[in-house]
Amino acid sequence: MIDPKTTRVLITGTAGFIGFHLARLLLAEGFTVHGYDGMTDYYDVRLKQRRHAMLRQNQRFTATEAMLEDMDTLRAATDAFAPDVIVHLAAQAGVRYSLENPRAYIDANVVGTFNVMECARAHAVRHLLMASTSSVYGANTDMPFTEVEKADTPLTIYAATKKATEAMGHSYAHLYDLPTTMFRFFTVYGPWGRPDMALFKFTKGIIERTPIDIYNNGEMWRDFTYVDDLVRGIRLLFDAVPVRPDSVEDIAPGDSLSPVAPFRVVNIGNSDKVRLLDFVEAIEDELGQKAIRNYMPMQTGDVPATWADAQLLQSLTGYRPQTPFREGVRRFVEWYRDYYQI
Ligand SMILES: NC(=O)c1ccc[n+]([C@@H]2O[C@H](COP(=O)([O-])OP(=O)(O)OC[C@H]3O[C@@H](n4cnc5c(N)ncnc54)[C@H](O)[C@@H]3O)[C@@H](O)[C@H]2O)c1
What we know:
342 residues, alpha/beta, Rossmann fold, 7-stranded parallel beta sheet, 11 helices, 40% helix
């Protein structure tokens, strides 16, 4: 078991939505945390600065604000901190933006992740945990999505770069015996969330009485995962360190553990698919105001539904996400009103 008091965790992406929440949870448990974030301007940098400023209030938190592609700085930060565990969350995120600026995804996600893996190898960390996405399930239609099924049909460069990081992670786990867990997150939402994501945009649009775009005429389903549940899942997976099996027979049914490497992929999702229009209604109810709905066709590269099988997470950690979406929406709206003083 990992002891928080003696464990140093390097988290990339701490000024981001999920990294911020994870750092807060770990600091509360007594871990020492170093954050690494390039403060990119993909969305409002002030939100990132606020998140980092909050984390810096804790004396066990330090940070380096630099890009992953800057290997010299990343290496120096990692060497100075000497992490026991690395959680790699920094990335160029967002499905839709990857159609506009695919190169940003190659730079941050492929080159950046390779640099993080090099640092993890140099420090022989006890566990490397890295973010992938439910988008890697791409055109799969068998639901809920399980980790043991093939995910070879990414529909966007975002999904393709994340799939690439899974493959890269597997190779380093195999070559250097680097215990590696890849998470596939499903539509994460909650306070301090991302302005480019649906909940944020819908809340803003409803408050400002501007139309909100609803794709595929609302025929969309998402496995919305509340951020506190998600970071709890990440934390519990620290202790589920993958071990290279002696033979294929040692791999439990439903476990994505590689037969040749200390490597596995784990879904973190609520395991409940919610209709987008029900989600919009929950926001309307919370705000006491109706949305002006702008129904749109399906966007290129988008998928109509995502739905996680969360059985593997549960069997590894005994935990499964549980916040109902109405409760999560309530907490988001409360935060939004407070943050923007509305
Ligand atoms: N939020 C979701 O619903 C979701 C779903 C699936 C997967 N993910 C993955 O989870 C991770 C965290 O996502 P998030 O929602 O917190 O996103 P986010 O954009 O809020 O956070 C990512 C952080 O990484 C930093 N960053 C981006 N490119 C960088 C680079 N090249 N060098 C250094 N820092 C860089 C950004 O400044 C940002 O603070 C990402 O890997 C994302 O792909 C998120």
